[in-house]
Amino acid sequence: MPRANGVFYRRVGCTSPGVCDLTTGRRDGLLGQENHVLLRGEVPECLPWRDSATAADAPVPQDAEQVRFLYELYASCDAFGIGPDQCTEMTNETPLLDNIEIRFTVVPNAPHIAVDNGCNFQDGFAQNTVINDPHLPGRADVSRNLNFGNTPPFVLMDSLMIGGPVVVSEESRWESRLWFRVPRVGPGADSRYTTWRDRVADGNAIDPSLAGDGNPIEFTFGYMDSCQQGTNAFKNKFASYFREDDDDFDPAFPELSDANEIIGDDVLFPGTKVEYFISSNYLIEPSQRYLLPDTTGGYFEEFEILPSWRDDEGVWKYPCFLQIDAYNRARDELLEDALQMAGIECDRFDYRDACTCWVTPMNRMLDPNNTNGMALPQLLGYRGVMVHGGLGALFYPEDHQLFSDYLTAGICGTDRRGLILDGPRESWAYSGASLFTNQLGAEWVSGEYNLFAGDENYCVQLDAPSGGGEAYGLSHSGGTYSYGAFGNGCPTPHDFHVLAPVGTGVGNRVYVNETNGMETEFAQIVNEGVSPNNYRTVLDGTAWELLAGQGANGECLVDYASRVGAISNELRAAVEWIYGVEDVPSLCVDPCVGDLTEIEPGGFLPAVATRLEPGMPNPFHPRTTLRYSLGSPGPVDLAIFDVSGRRVRTLASGELSAGAHEVAWDGTDESGRRVASGTYWARLEAAGRRSASRLVVLK
User: At what angle do helices 560-579 and 333-342 cross, to 10 degrees?
Assistant: First the structure.
């Protein structure tokens, strides 16, 4: 229904008791939007809508007992000022309404609050160590970097911080409380934990040892302190430090100091999990509280110090798999239920605000000043890593390097490692080019399968290539299955990424048009590391959230159970291919303990992999610096190539020693002439391996 049809709409309703005369065309009795709006333009499109009937032009009255939803279409070129020369006088299409939900909520008379950007608690690992030591604690930090972004040192901010309405009068003053409990305590916790716990519990059974066998643990709270910048106090912000009049405030230390943090640093040990939520209320109405998040159904925010060590018949172990969730950044029931159905026990690292301007990379490196994420040896403590990029997560180059080193590092045991990723974005093929091409064996072709293949079906079948050549099919030890991906088109369009294998990569799943059966390469690429490496990888072009079982006619079954089953089947098949059906790992001890005992915190590992790092700066003018490392001495060839594959400039050649190296490129060719602006590739060949990095030359 383009504008020329003269068809406009508004979302309205009527209530009972009350008058709702729908036949006169008058506004009397109708609620919701006051004005009509254009349905859409010339091209069909799918739009999600979410409206608040409380904040509408004509809101629902508080005494309403019933609300009737109405969707009003009005066809009249004259009414909307569309001239006769522009009006077709045709209304030959009908809009489709789907998935309508009407919900009733109670809004308390309490201040609405939100967590400031990057200021929610972040999962972490033990600090001041490069291994997974259960006897060394972690920190209760938030995801924001003090220096913002991936600018070293990577130092996380200390405190959760919220914002709300600005206080302008005595009546508008408000306060906030941080509620928390500790449902799981690491086995290595010592008196540092119990001293903190006994101080803040205020008589509540906030962990299992206080609750006793079979009894529920309880939430306790601390009054959050108002915060300030320098000497200027904010009039609408609170931070997770004890307020001066809270009985747990220690007057021997200043306010907003580490000693007065509600959840302290260096008191939570690996294996410890903290659940929390925040409440706010006006001082004049203390019983009316706003809760963040909505705790209905027992949902709370949480963070953990990993790994989740537990006592397994006298031996401390933790799950052999780590799930890194960079899309939901919190518990996702689909993935959790799918992993449970597949019998895969995982730790989970919630990568909050992945690749935003205020968050740090996951890769801690080995700088003792860094407090973020994890060091490489801590990640190497896991046999398998599942990285959930979903529908929109991005990663820093430092994170790409972390995954690459995880697969190729020659330390911390030689058992096969696995890396499974979903939802690749275009950036993988650029800033993550070395990982993408070398370890994952993949090349990014397109981010829009529907346009690339001309397939407008909402559901797309995913299958092994009909011509063969896949590494494994649609079966696992539990049997065979079929599945697809939904959301390729209306009513909820999403991007499906088209991939191609390079090097040793194998196209393992193709997109199949359910109308004509045409196959398009590829929805999934798998790869296997060759000697001396021992790894297997799986890269999915569709987000796991969009997988679903298939009905008899090939349509996607998008009910919850079918979606869980589809995700579970694919992850289980991938894991069994990586490790073998009989060798899927379960609980692990840290394999790095024996390899790294001589490395002091803040020390530096020897070069563990031959790799080329991204050029810095990039894009650049007039020069960029390329850093690379060699795992062993030997012949090296580092050169610049244009997009056609022609060698432009050789930067390093001959025998070089193991370790770190760097070289600058000034944007000139072998004859010293400046190259044209555009895209180039730096390629390192050494020790039988090839690494590449994309460079952009500016004028």
Answer: 50
